[in-house]
Each structure stands twice: as structure tokens, then as C-alpha cells.
Amino acid sequence: MGYAVRFEDVYKEYPFYQHITAGFKSFVFNLPGSIASLKKTRFIALKGVSFDVKKGETFGIIGRNGSGKSTTLGLIAGVIRQDRGHIKTDGRISSLLELGAGFHPDLSGIENIILNGILMGNTREEMLRKVDEIIEFSELGDFIYQPLRTYSSGMYVRLGFSVAVHIDPEILLVDEALAVGDLNFQEKCLGKMTDFKKSGVTIIMASHDLTLITRLCDRVAWIDGGSIMANGKPEEVILKYLDSLGQKANILSLAGQHAETQEQTVSAEPASAQDGEAPLQASGSFSWWDSPLIIKECETVITGNPGGHFYEFLRGQCMIESLEKGLSISNRLKGMIKNLITYGICKSFDVIDGEDKIAALQAGTLDIKEGFYDLFLSIDALNRIKNLNSFLEKIDYALADKGVIISLEYIGPANFQWSDKETEIADMIYKSLNDKASGLSAGNTAGAVSSVDVIPAIERIFDISTVRYFGSPLDDLVFNKILDRFDENDGKDSALLKTIIRFEHILVKQGVLENSYALIIARKRSSG
Amino acid sequence: MRQNYLKYYRDLVVALTQKELKVKYKRSFLGYFWSVANPLALALVFFVAFKVVMKIQIENYTLFLISGLFPWQWFSNSVNSSVMVFVGNAQLIKKVNFRREVLVVATVLNDMLHFILSIPVIVIFIFLYGMKPSLSWLIGIPLMLIIQFIITFGLSVAISAINLFFRDIERIVFIFTTLMFYLTPIIYSEDMVPDKYKPLILLNPLSLLMMSWRKLFMNGTLDFKDIALAFIYSLIIAAVGYIIFRKLRWRFAEVL
Which residues contact A452 (CB under 8 A, 6 or more apart)? Predict the structure, then answer.
């Protein structure tokens, strides 16, 4: 039939169960009222939803909380039933709706694998055949023989995911399940999803993670208030969705903020000007940077309060196993670079933030080992440096054929000021580098330096293996920290913030917004 | 295809029952002993109260007690624990599509296994009283197991479903099983019931069951009239229970 799932005018409503679950007594004593209210006060979750998901397609469902996403997945999974309309599914369904649902803490990993697999529709025989593969995938080692109560929450989730993906689904349902575990694990999940996609498994996912949706989905439906508002290409639907949230102005003012922070405003949004999308011009003055809470969080980050999200973010964004070596010219990143070292990810990250070190840098006496390097370039910093090509040559010269990470960017609210001392150091670095650069300068000294220009420049010195752009990893760092606090109190606000940031990444990817950051993994060419 | 289906449900029931068993004894030293200890302790209490203190006129009173008490424990444990079966597996019910009644089947089977494992204790007492197990057990025990399973399942499945909507059921069930225990001839014999109430015994399927178990264990006899009646009751209870369950089934994920 070609369709994995088909919804025809599906209608679903929920009674408000508190009338009954509140207790037998209150129900019986208000019997007429209870029955009347049961009939009257109903929550309509889906009103006449129709859509098809073709076999092998990856289909995303987006929408605000309570818009009907989970109801839709629940209906497909068959845990609830529609009140009207028809639902047809064709194929074995596996849900990643809740990893490890049905696990028992007193049973060992192995016992739980078998039990869970059988609950999800496999025979014991099938599970016994798959169990080795699952154990291997879960990377739990000898822990697999221990009862689950001894597991960390990460191990628990890993086991749950391992079982769920090994039962050969034909239709896979995903409901924010990938948002659990560390980013490393999330990458593994993503890899598995991509494998599924390649092997023709139909994937239906509901998520707030718009980046993920754009990355994986062939088609996206946006549900609001129980109806489908749009259904089509991911980018188009997501734009409509964000538009409805009224966030476009904010995103653009965010872009504007980036521009403002650059003292020698060179080219904050050249790409958006080039792009044909006129409505994407910056407008409005509100920015989430201005929120007092965020200012406070920024301060926390800036003062080097250990967070660790930065590293995880890098891992997630860059899909790199480890940062080998690195050097950072920085006056603000110290705390976060330290985190990188704490995580054991890089052994020789050096933060050049003191006058002694800067002097050593200028004198070319800083000792750095040769090998792979991560070049951390921020547009913000690059824009302050007029001629990137010569700058890079200069850096190259200064570091005596070693790799470098340059990261000197603004983070924080619009009205945030660096201390005089820090400004002094920053200016010193730039000045000294610029002075040297101007001697060699041959190119475009007045124009903007975009990341596009960066690549050929670097290519002359390094063999580039990976390039990743993002809006601003520090935004995400700050943002993740805020999310940690927010989630408990207000899921909506954090989802909103997340959406804004993610959308920024999308725009960057589409070239609407200029990158403000690039991470380049490169190997230094042997000199000579 | 159909064979696969059956095989799958067999695996599902076995896996869930195994889980219950494992979980129950995983962290305890004495394991199996506990499944017998509880009814034995109860038997001891009743023995002291009725035989020693009140001097009840029943021969082989200990054997008399346990041959009714052990199957009763199966019934009451199942019914009482079925209350929380769906509530306790909320995650599973909300997220995974499988036949929910299997959870109840596993609970009842689990308690049935405990009962079967306690039969050797009954055998020991039979020998202690100088009697012998009868060959009729070979037909009687499986037959009775089936009938009691059907009754217990029917009641449990309805209770477990209703409890999702009215949590008060938990209390009601506890009172119900306690009352039924004394209304069923377990600690006393049916002969001791006054004549005018005797017909009422026939209205209580549990009386029929417990009386039949006792006759089977103590005399090695099967009263087919009682058994047939109990069987009819069991089918009615199971049918009603399952209809209630089916009606509510699709709402489980919504209320949990």
C-alpha cells in the first residue's frame, strides 16, 4: 500500500479524569454533577487530523506543548484509541517513547533486555539471538550482570535505547527520547537513527529540537491546537511554526545584537542582505539577552563557574571524538577551557591570557607540540582583525608552525562591559597582531572577513579535515545553563529559548545568518 | 502466523511470571520458604485459637486448615496484588502496546506457582497424619487449578482495571477478601454452618472451590457437582471481569 501510517480525519478527546480519580466518594456524592461534567468538560486533543507517512520516510511532528504531538504518537503506537476517524498502520512498531519503560531495578541488565524485548513484541528465541548484539551496543560490559538499581541513569538509558533499536522495527516512534543522556550518547542515537533511515525504516518523531528535525526528517507536520497547520518540507514548516510563535523578531534582533557587539562594525549580516528574504531583516529591540536572569547566568559563565556544557556542546555539534591539542588566545574563555581539560578531552589546551604568555606568544617562544589542532575561530574576533590572511600568516609565524585556537569573542548582554584590564589585554593582542599583519597585508583591509574567507587562508597552512559552523557556542553554553534552571519551573520558556537558538543554527546553515563561529579541525602541514 | 502468536503470548506470560518470581526472591535469603511460611504461620494461629483454645471438633485440624488455607492464599494474594498491577506498570502501559491483561495473568500465575510449590507441605502433613496422597490428585489438581485460575483472573482483571479509575477499590478489595475469608468454610467446616444458611454456601464460588480442594487433599475425592458449579461460576466471573476490562482498556493510558 506504500503507506506506513495513515490518519484519516482522526478525532481524539480526553475527559477530565480528576472527577473520578479524585476518589470514589466525591464521584458518588456528586453523581449527577460528576457525570455531567465528565461529558461536558472534555479536552479535545486532535480535531480531524489527516496525514500519510510513506514507507521509509522520516516524518517529524512539531508544535507547542499540549498541541497533540504525543497524542498522535500514542495513537500510532496503539496505546490509546481515537474517538472518530481511521488510523491504519502497516509494519512492526517500536517506540522510543520512553527508554527503559518496564525495566525492573532488581533484575540484571540481561534479564531486563529479554523481558523488555518480549514486551515489545519479540519471542524469547528472537531476543536470545539478539542479546549479545544488544549488550555490545550498550557498552555496559560486566555491568550487564548486575541488577539495574546499581546503574547510573546514563547506563539505564543506554540499555533502554540499545533494546529499543535492536528489535528490528519497521516503524520507529521517537518522542524526545534522544534528549536524554549525554551528548555523546545522543550522537550514538543519532547515528543509529541515520542507519535506520538508510535501511528504509519509517521514522516518526515528535520533538522540540528543530535542528534534529531538519537534520533527519524528509517531511514535517506542524500541529497546533489539535489540527495540522502545515505539512511539507522541514524548513518551510519550521519557518511557519516559528513565525507563529512570534519569535522571528527576536531571532533577528539577536543577530542585530551580534552586530552591535562589534565595535568596528564591519559586516554583521551580509548574508541576510544577500539573501532574498526581505522579511528577515532585523527589527524590534527586544532581545533575550536583556533578561536579568540571562545577564546573571552570563555572569556565572563568565566567572568560570564549572558547567561542562561547553564541551558537551562541542562534542554534539562537531561530532568529534576528542580535541587533540589546542591553543586559545582568550581572556574570557579560561573557565571553559579548563573544563575541557577537566573532562580529559584535551591534554594541552593552553589559554593565553596573561601578559607573560602574550609576550611569549609574540616572541614565538610558546612551546606547543606538533600534531592535530583545533582552530577555534570566531567571526567576532576575525572582524576585528582586518586582514585575516595575513593574520593567519602572522599567527603561524608567531607560533612557529604550530596550530592555534583563536577565540576572542564577546559574550553577554548588550550592556555588558569588560573590565579595563581585560580590554587592555584584548586590545594588546589585536594591536600587536594587527601591527605585524599590516606589514604583510596585501589584501582587502577594509572589508568584512567572513568564515568563507577563512577556509582558503587556513588551507594554505593546514590540511583541513573538518569544518563546523555555529551561531555561537557560547550562546548555547549560557543557554544550556539556563535550561537547567528553567526546566523545573517553566518548560515553555526554556523550549522557547531553545527554539530560538536552534533556529539561529538553521539560519546559519542556510546562509541567512552569518556564522559567528567556526571550529576547524586541521593538521598542520609539515613545514619544509 | 497463528502459531507464532501463541508462542509469543506464551513467552510473554512466562517472562512476566519469571520476572515476578525473580523480583520477589532476588533479595531474600530464604526465598521459597517465605511462600510457605506465611500460610503456615496463619495456620498455626488458627490452630491455637480454634483447636487449643476453642477445642473445635474437627479431626486432623492442621491438615484441614492448610488444605483450605493454601489455595485461599493464592486467591487472596492475587486479588490483592492485582489492584496495583496496572498502576505499578504505568510507564509500560503509557508507552508500549501489548495485551495489558497479560500482566494480570502473570500475577495470578505467579501466586498459583507459589501454591503449587506449597503442595509438598500439604503432603508432609498428610503423611504426618498417617494418610497417603491419592491418585485422583492427577486429575483433580490440574482441574481445580484451572477453575481457580479462571475465577481469580476474572476478578483480578476487573479489579485492576477499575482501580485505575477509582483508587478506593484498593481498600474495598482488602475488606472484601478479609470478609470472604471468614464467610468461606476454611477455618471451620461446612457441616458446622447452620442448616438455614447452608444453601448460601452454594452461592459462594469460593466456598465450592475451597471445599473441593479440601476434599481432594484429605479424602482424595472429587465432588463433580460442586466442581461443575464452581466451573460455571468461574466462567461467568471471568466473562464479566473481562468485559469490564475490555470496556476500560483503551482509557488506561489516559488516566495513568
Answer: none
Contacts of A77 in chain B (CB under 8 A): 95-97
Q: What is the spatial distance between Cα B70 and Cα B36, in angstroms, rounded to a whole number? A: 8
Q: Exposed, middle or buried by CB within 10 Å (0-12, 13-18, 19+), for A394?
A: buried
Read off the pLDDT band of B40 (50, 70, 90).
Answer: confident
How far apart CA B99 and CA A262 sit, in angstroms, is: 62
Minimal C-alpha gap between A20 and chain B (Å):
6
Residue A528, exposed/middle/buried by CB under 10 A (0-12, 13-18, 19+)?
exposed
Structure-model confidence comparison of residues B18 and A328, the more confident one: B18
Q: Do A103 and B117 touch, CB atoms closer than 8 A?
A: no
Q: pLDDT at position A107, please?
A: 87
Judge contact between A488 and A437, C-beta under 8 A.
no
pLDDT score, position A373: 53
Q: What angle do CA B184, B186, B189 make, to 5 degrees?
A: 95
Beta bridge partners of A349: A326
Mean pLDDT for chain B overall: 89
- Name, in order, each residue with C-beta under 8 angstroms of A509's C-beta and a sequence gap of 6 or more: A214, A469
Q: Strands A462-470 and A517-524, how do they pair?
A: antiparallel
Distance from CA of A335 to the nearest CA of B (A): 41
What distance in Å separates the CA atoms of residue B58 and residue B190, rounded to the nearest whole number?
A: 11
DSSP B29-67: SSTHHHHHHHHHHHHHHHIIIIIIIS----TTHHHHHHH
Q: For residue A107, what is the nearest residue in chain B, using CA coordinates?
A: B23
The Cα–Cα gap between A317 and A312 comes to 8
Of A74, A102, A107, the CB nearest to B22: A107
**Per-residue confidence (pLDDT) for residue A177, from 0 to 100:** 55
Give the closest of A17, A104, A147 to B19, CB-based. A104
- Could you tell me the pLDDT band of residue A29, with boundaries at 50, 70 and 90? low
Give me the torsion for CA of B69, B75, B78, B81, rounded to 10°. Answer: -70
Query: What secondary structure letter does DSSP report for A152?
Result: -
Closest by alpha carbon to B182, among B210, B159, B202, B158? B210
Instruction: Tell me the one-letter amino acid at B7.
Output: K
Which is more confident, A379 or A186? A186
Q: Are A499 and A435 in contact (CB under 8 A)?
A: no
* Residue whose grid cell is 533527519: A216
pTM: 0.63
> Amino acid letter at B61?
Y
Cross-strand partners of A518: A377, A469
Looking at residue A147, the DSSP 8-state letter turns out to be: B
Q: pLDDT tens digit string along A388-417? A: 444 444 444 433 332 233 333 333 223 334
pLDDT digits (tens, 9 = 90+) for A54-106: 999 999 998 877 788 888 988 998 888 888 899 999 888 887 766 667 788 88
Residues in chain A closer than 8 A to B11 (CB atoms): 118, 123-125
Close Cβ partners of A345 (under 8 Å, ≥ 6 residues apart): A311, A322, A323
Closest partner residue to B165 (CB to CB) among A20, A81, A123 is: A20
User: pLDDT over 90 for what percent of chain B?
Assistant: 46
Would you say residue A339 has pLDDT above 80? no
The answer to whether the Cα torsion of A144, A145, A149, A152 is positive or negative is negative
3-state secondary structure A34-94: HHHHHHHCEEEEEEEEEEEEECCCEEEEECCCCCCHHHHHHHHHCCCCCCEEEEEECCCEE
- Mutation site, B1, B2, B17, B19, interface A, largest A CB count within 10 A: B19
The C-alpha cell 492442621 sits at B62
